[in-house]
Every structure is written in structure tokens, then in C-alpha cells.
Amino acid sequence: MTKKMRYVLHVVAAAGAIMCVVAVVCIAWFSHGVGHLRTDNVSDSHAMSNSRNSTHGYNAKCSSHAVASDAGRAVLAIRENVNYSQEAILSRPLNSIVPDSLLPENATILTNDSLPDRQAYIPEVGNGHIATVVQSDAILMNGLYNGRDKTSHRARIPSTSGYSVNWTSPSGLERKYSLDIGRGIFTESYTGAGVTISLRTYAHRSLTLVMVNELTLSRENTSIDVSVKIVLNRGQESEDVNFYKDSHGILHGETKEAEYPEIAPTIRFYMLTSASLEGVETISSGLTTETFVSLTSIDVNKTKAIFQYEQARAQFLGGTLLSSHVDGWNHMWQRGRIDIAGDITISKMNYACLYYLMSSLPLTPNRKEWPFFGLSPGGLAHGVENLDYMGHVFWDQDTWMFPPIALLHSDIGRTLVQTRIRTLRSAQLLAKRSGNEGAKYPWESSYTGLETCPAEPYGRLEIHVIGDVAMMMRQYWQLTRDVELMVDLSGADVVWETAKYWAARSTYNQTDDTFRINGVMPPDEFNFPVNDSVYTNSIAALNLLFANQLARFLGKSENETWSNISSKLLILYDETLDFHPEFQGFSTYRHRPKQADVVLLGYPLMVDMKLSTRKNDLMIYEEITSTGPAMTWGMFLLGWLELDNVTKANELYQKTVANAQEPFLVWAEYADGDGATNFLTGMGGYLQMILFGYGGCRIRDETLTFKPVLMEGSNEMTFVGIDYRGCSFDLRYSDTEMTLNQTHVTCGSVGLSVRFNDSGAWHSLTTGIPMTRERQSFEIKNLR
């Protein structure tokens, strides 16, 4: 089919596209999807899923369209006769409308005239379901893993979106590469001689199954010939997936090797792609602008993959595909973000960290058939075999990434919590296999929730992750009081089962009437095995305490064993030096910690201690800690702010951001550029430094407290959309004053109240009416 013929198709397609979408919606409404997970009760095969949540996603949202089913099916029959692999290239004689971004463009459009020499520093686009490093040979999908047990890794789908420009005509145009953080778009552009050529790549923020590439050719007048050669980086055949194409041109994929076949089989999925942009594209005669598009839709549910492909196709022909994507990002930014004014460098860093984290997170609730599987240190765009921790989920999600996300987007925080509920039965199985009761969450998990750490002895010894999971549950509970999640969706079971594990794992020492936890690896992975890791014992004690606290709230009896152990777990303390030794036998002369460990007692664990002890912990461990991964120094900075030493905190700032690589602010795990990329763990630590350090936020049982401090170089900081107990509010502050503005109150809540440090009285916040005071500490509570 020639390019000339496609314009005739456009007229027909534009007329019927919306009805076609309605038809696919109707079929999707009656579809049960594709089931992959064995959850029967035969031997260990029950270990995959413990979630009882109802579907809040696709089917529920589509129900209003079911009345149009008869007319819709008639139109769908036309599209069903199409072989997707033989369709012509889609184009339209206009540029795509690019809506305004909610964010300031001078801080959110990162531009350079060349790409980084190292592939690791090239940016990514994603939406929580699919993601890709731009111009790479891979698309990766949430939950799609290949490899037996400890070789499990993200399965590489050969890229259908890794396009780049090989040459242009006219030649000699100015080339730019831009990452638009506010809109979630990467662009390779060429301008000059009355010509503009733009190649955009984005993972659609609303149609989350769809990856989009748009090529726009523009000229000032029709006498200028404009052509471009596009190349596609497909890479080699996938070593992870077997593909075959059906009669409609739809690719059927299946991973080659199940992670744990006794738990779940190989994973099947479906993939639709429009005609490739690869080759020479020339603007059509008589046009001054023409936009071509390539669409890729991927999902485990064939009907849904078709539905979103058709919807994307219809939106492109109608001129709304790009704008609906940007609207999705604007909606996310409007609901929760951090604005920092006065220092453009800080502002860029702040937005970039939020962008990369959100690019690996879904904005919609979990789908029952294919939930979100968790945040990996390298995010969704990284983690193929033997690279970037292979897409595994660690404590990084629970301890480093969850807090800033949950504070600004409690609904996404809920999704993260559900990743651990989903794998509770697997954790129970691991505990049983280790000879203990309860739930033992793995150090690294992928698809099944069983251990996938490829090296010893991490999975066996680094059990603090169990307490980290419970800590995330506790913080979420403190922020939301989400009874439905705790009771109906088994969140409380995670807390109680992890408490059972600590009770079984601890040993009683009759000599000093204490409980000990021996033979562990602390967060400091340089020193192991050790006894009585102060971090491990402290988080275990918190887990046990919270388990009883939650039981009381839900009308259950306290477990006296848990109370006894939590009160007697040995928390090492050196009275002479007034600090916490990291473990039994620790020496400040002989041992060099890898990363933040003991300093985490002050935050986020909030262990009760003297201010002098907190100061000594910071001083001693800052002196002897190695270069450390990216999140380490933000915790030291946060600690100094807690002690009101702003000067010392500001001195550490450059160490916290040394891992960010120009020009697109991709983070490396280590400051020398080595380690995993794009290191979301470090970004989570950075955002905690902003919110919980300079913002001074602390999540407590009944209140949310703040002690705001202005960052050096900034003149105003704003936290937009802080979520607390069904309400949202903004906090804006300068060096002298601050303003609180309640922006949302859910049905059934009467809103928030605030008590300022200079007053003992509680003041009710009224939605839409700002309250301004001198900058000071304050606390928030829900009036319900």
C-alpha cells in the first residue's frame, strides 16, 4: 500500500475510529483475561498470591460503554479483518498539539546536542506498565521475568520503538536531544533552513499498554524537499521470549523459562505494532507539516492490548494522542509534587528524581489479573539478564522509595504496599523452609515472591528486609488509616506474620534477660555474619510493637510473647562513647561500614535516644563510612537537620547529588558512575532528604509533624498534595513565613487541623482558604 493511499484510509478511519474503540471496550467487558498464576493448595503452589482485592481498574471503568455493544460489534468486524502487521504507516497532515506543562520548562526540559557516551546514562520513558531506555534494543514490561529461580531477570522484548535519525534532507540542521520531564517525552530534533524534524518517544501515561513514536516533518513552504532516514535498534532475537504471529498479525509471546515452575508457569503476553517508521520518510506533496506514528501495545490480556491499540490509533487520527498523554502527566503533577524556587540546579534535580520514579509506577489501581509487581533499584526500564539487579525488588522499595511516594501520592503508596501483600504466601513458605514460623520476605524477589538473589549469603542473612516490609505497612497505616487494606486485603496479615517470624528467629539470653538475633547481615553489607545488628534488632522490635498496636485497633488480643520480646530485644549502646555500635564486637578502628546503617535509627526508625547519642552516631559513622551508594549521604544530611545544624547539612548536599549524571540527570549507584542505573533507590533517598530533611516531616501514630528549613540557594519551597488520612494539603514556605492550604477532603472526613509551635491551640483548616504564619514547626491531625 502506498503512502498516497493512506489518506483515503484516514477519512474512513477517522469516521469509524471511536465506534471501533467502543466495540473493543464491550468485548473487554465480557472478557475474563488471561490467567497465568497457579494458586491452588497443592504443596507449595499456593505461595503466589494472597490478595483478595477486587478489580478497581479496567473493567469497572468500561462498564458505562456496554450499552453500545450492538453497534460497536458491527464496526469491530471491519477492523477484525485487518492484519495488523500489514497496515500502512499512519500519518496525519498536522503536527501533534503539545499542551502546556504544569511545571516550569526551564527546570524540566533537559537538552543536549549529543547523547551520553555511556549507554547507562541515556534516559528512559515509562508508565509503570512498560518502559524503555530511548533508542535501546529493549522494551520491558512490569512483571515479565524469565529465568529459573535465581537467574530470574526482566525478559527483553526486542524493541519496536528504539528509533533514531540516521540522516536528514536538507542536511546540516542543528540537532538536539531533549527530555521533557513535565510531559514525559523524549525528542530528537533537527532545525534550520526553514525545516523542523522531530522524533518523539513516549510511553503513554493514560493508555498504559502503548508505546508511541511520532515523527513530524515541517517546512515553511512546500518548495522545500524534506526527507529523513529512520533506523530502528531491534537488537538480536530475544533470548528470553519465544514469539509467533497469528493470522491477524498479533504477536504471541511466551517466556522461555519459568521462575519456579511449581508455583507459576511461563508468562504469556500479546503485542501489536503498527507499521514501522524504519526507512526513508518524505513529507507528502502539498503539505507543510506531516506527522507519522508508530504504536506498540503490549499486555497479558489480548483483548486489552487490542483495545488500547485501537484507542491510541483513534486518538492519533483525531489529533489527541499526545495531548491525552501530557494530560495524564499534568494530572499526576497536579496531585503531588515538590517545587523549589531560586536555584534552577536544585529544581532540575528535584523534578528529575520525581520523573524517573513516577515513570516506573502505575497511576491506576492494581488490575486483578496483572498487578504491579514492585519497584526495582533500576526501575522498569532496566534489569535485563546480569544487569541492574535484574529488575528484582529489594528493601529499596520499602525503605527508600515508598515514603516520598506515599506522602505525595497515597494511592500509589497503596499499590506499593500491595506488592508485599501479593507475595505473603511465598514469604510464609520461605519462613517454613528456614524452619521458622511466620513470613520471611526474600532479599530479592521477582515474579513469584520467592528468593531470586543470585549470590550467597544475602538471601539467607539479610533478613532486615522482613522488618522493612512491616515498616512500610506501618507508615502507610499511619498516613491513611486504610482499614479496608488491612482487613479485607490482608495487610494486617503481613504485619502479624512478620512478627511471628521475629518471635521465632530471636533467642532468649537468660544471663541478662534479653532477646538476641544472631547470624545476620545488616544494611552494612561489608560486615557479616554478625550478632545483634542494631538496625535489625531495632526494626524487629518496631515490627513486634506495631503488630500488637494493630491488633488492639482491630479489636484483637495482644500477643504477650511479642510484647515481651519487643521490650527485651537487645539494642546495643556504648555508654562511654554515647553511641550505638553497629553490632556485637563492632570497632570504629577495624570496621568500615558500606552505607547508611546505624544512622537510620534516628530516621526513619525514630528510635528514642538522647540528642547527644544521635549526634555521636552521625559524627562517628560519617567519619568511617565508605563512599557508599547514592542514598547514604542524604540520611546523614537529614540527621544534621534534625539536630538544627543547617550548616553541616548544607555541606553534605553536594555528596548527595554526586551520583546524578549529566545531561539527563540519570543516577548511578555510586558517585564514580558505576553500579546500577537508573538508580531509583538514590532518588528516593534524595526526595526523603527534601521532604523529611528540609521539610522536617515525621510520620507519627496520630499526627504528621513538620519542621521546615529552606534549602541553601532556594528562596521558596512548596510541597504540593501532601496526603494524610483522606485529605490533601499544600505547604509553601520561605525563609520567614509559611502557608498551609487544604485542597481536598474525602467524603466522610471533616478535614485537618493544625497546631503551630508558637501556640497550644488547634486550628481547623478550611478547604481553599490558605493559612499563613511565621515559618515554624507545626503538627497536623485529622479531625475525624
Automatic annotation (TrEMBL):
GO terms for biological process: carbohydrate metabolic process. It holds the Pfam family Glyco_hydro_65m. One of its GO terms (molecular function) is protein-glucosylgalactosylhydroxylysine glucosidase activity. The keyword Transmembrane applies. The chain crosses the membrane at residues 7-30. Keywords: Glycosidase, Hydrolase, Membrane, Transmembrane, Transmembrane helix. Its EC number is 3.2.1.107. It catalyses: (5R)-5-O-[alpha-D-glucosyl-(1->2)-beta-D-galactosyl]-5-hydroxy-L-lysyl-[collagen] + H2O = (5R)-5-O-(beta-D-galactosyl)-5-hydroxy-L-lysyl-[collagen] + D-glucose. Residues 381-589 form the Glycoside hydrolase family 65 central catalytic domain. PANTHER family: GLYCOSYL HYDROLASE-RELATED (PTHR11051), PROTEIN-GLUCOSYLGALACTOSYLHYDROXYLYSINE GLUCOSIDASE (PTHR11051:SF8). Belongs to the glycosyl hydrolase 65 family. Catalyzes the hydrolysis of glucose from the disaccharide unit linked to hydroxylysine residues of collagen and collagen-like proteins. This is Protein-glucosylgalactosylhydroxylysine glucosidase. It comes from Biomphalaria glabrata (Bloodfluke planorb). The gene is LOC106072139.
